[in-house]
Specification:
Layout lengths: L10 E2 L6 H5 L15 E2 L2 E2 L11 H14 L4 E2 L4 E7 L2 E6 L2 E5 L2 E3 L6 E2 L13 E4 L13 E5 L3 H12 L4 E4 L4 E2 L3 E2 L2 E2 H7 L13 H5 L4 E2 L11 H6 L3 E3 L2 E5 L2 E4 L3 H25 L24 E3 L5 E6 L3 E2 L18 E2 L2 E2 L5 E3 L16 H20 L1
Parallel strand pairs: 1-4, 8-25, 10-21, 11-12, 11-21, 12-17, 13-16
Antiparallel strand pairs: 2-3, 5-6, 6-7, 9-22, 14-15, 18-19, 19-20, 23-24
């Protein structure tokens, strides 16, 4: 889009093209979004399985082809060490030299570092700890049981994979977003896009801060289009416990209240499905889809322990599926708040003319962090950037 407007630019990549997909994902991961939603500006998936879900090797190939097709001016193996303001522009220091520019777009995303809670320091030394950026496959872990902390998309998928490997798995569940994989014969993310839910703009959302911090939905991409929710996991033998609240004297302590957590997630799912049904009726499209259904409530375990002895040898490892955070240590411009989040208005960084961001949660729309959300957000950001360059050139 910058090239379309004849704006000179360069793309700096710390490793190879699609580096995080190559180096920081577990082996069995597939996209949560169906292949038909793999769309980038002027480029889209055109394979034989639009309803499938790309594996990581396919995602890497998709992005690499996009870079080649667009002849994007990418400089690989060029890590940025600092960005500083310099008069009417910025200086970008890299391991191979410095670049002076009038504008910078931060496209490093929100998943640069694993967010691991401070209580990790109290875990006994006998228990191996991995973040989801470190985890690759079950063989990487010592034999024995695993505690997975966090039950969003990543935690649910890893709990399922580890249980299938024959291990005892305990899953610590906090706030989560429950969704069925399929609804009325279509992928649930097809409904998110078609109904307009995903296109809701950031300035139309009542509680934007909360929307930006919502966990990812419990979804998995499989050839069977299977739903992966807590009922599925518990039926497979995964033990559900409450949110991990503390570790004291080698014992993991979990909060109660699973019943309330489950009821809230179920209620929100049903409300979203109601939205889809209303959209279908309003557009006289009800006949195109299967009958509306509602799903079984999340089953509360008959027994959910409030503590777990990490020193007994039954649990040999912990996988921290507790989310990610951006990392802006290289950004030497005062635009990051005390919690490490970039201060911006729809990707336009506050109090830093010419500085922009893209790829953050609900940046400009609810779909901003998904591949399918990149084009619309990029178009808006580039439009603002072009206007800024024109104005400052006068």
């Amino acid at each position: 889009m910058l090239a379309e407007r004849s704006i000179d630019h360069v793309v700096l990549e710390r490793g190879e093209v699609a580096n995080s997909w190559r180096r920081e994902r577990w082996d069995s991961l597939h996209l949560l979004t169906p292949n038909a939603q793999a769309r980038l500006p002027g480029y889209r998936y055109d394979g034989a399985d639009p309803d499938g879900y790309m594996a990581m090797t396919e995602v890497v190939a998709f992005i690499a082809r996009y870079a080649a097709t667009t002849s994007a001016p990418v400089r690989t193996q060029t890590a940025v060490t600092s960005v500083t303001a310099d008069g009417s522009g910025y200086r970008v220091a890299t391991e191979s030299g410095e670049i002076a520019c009038r504008s910078v777009v931060i496209a490093s995303g929100a998943c640069n570092a694993a967010h691991v809670p401070a209580l990790r320091a109290a875990v006994p030394e006998s228990v191996a700890c991995l973040s989801t950026l470190d985890y690759r496959n079950p063989a990487q872990l010592p034999d024995g049981g695993v505690l997975v902390v966090g039950a969003s998309a990543t935690g649910a998928q890893l709990a399922d994979e580890l249980r299938r490997s024959g291990r005892r798995v305990v899953l610590a569940v906090g706030e989560h977003v429950r969704l069925p994989r399929m609804y009325r014969g279509r992928d649930v993310l097809w409904w998110m896009e078609a109904s307009g839910v995903w296109n809701q703009r950031y300035d139309e959302i009542d509680d934007l801060t909360r929307a930006r911090r919502l966990p990812s939905p419990q979804l998995v991409g499989t050839p069977e289009h299977a739903t992966l929710d807590l009922n599925t996991l518990s039926a497979a033998g995964v033990e559900l416990v409450g949110r991990l609240s503390a570790i004291r004297d080698g014992r993991a302590l979990f909060s109660g209240g699973l019943r309330n957590l489950f009821a809230l997630a179920d209620l929100k799912m049903d409300r979203l499905l109601d939205t889809f049904d209303e959209w279908a009726r309003a557009g006289a499209r009800d006949g195109e889809f299967g009958s509306p259904v509602r799903f079984e409530s999340t089953r509360v375990p008959e027994r959910s322990p409030l503590e777990l002895d990490l020193s007994s040898g039954e649990i040999r490892s912990i996988v921290w599926a507790t989310g990610f955070r951006p990392e802006y240590g290289w950004l030497r411009v005062p635009v990051v708040d005390h919690k490490g989040h970039l201060r911006h208005d729809g990707g336009v960084v506050e109090n830093a003319p010419g500085l922009y961001a893209i790829g953050l949660p609900v940046l400009r729309r609810r779909k901003s962090t998904f591949i399918v959300g990149a084009e619309d957000d990029a178009r808006d950001i580039v439009s603002h950037l072009a206007g800024y360059l024109d104005e400052t050139a006068r």
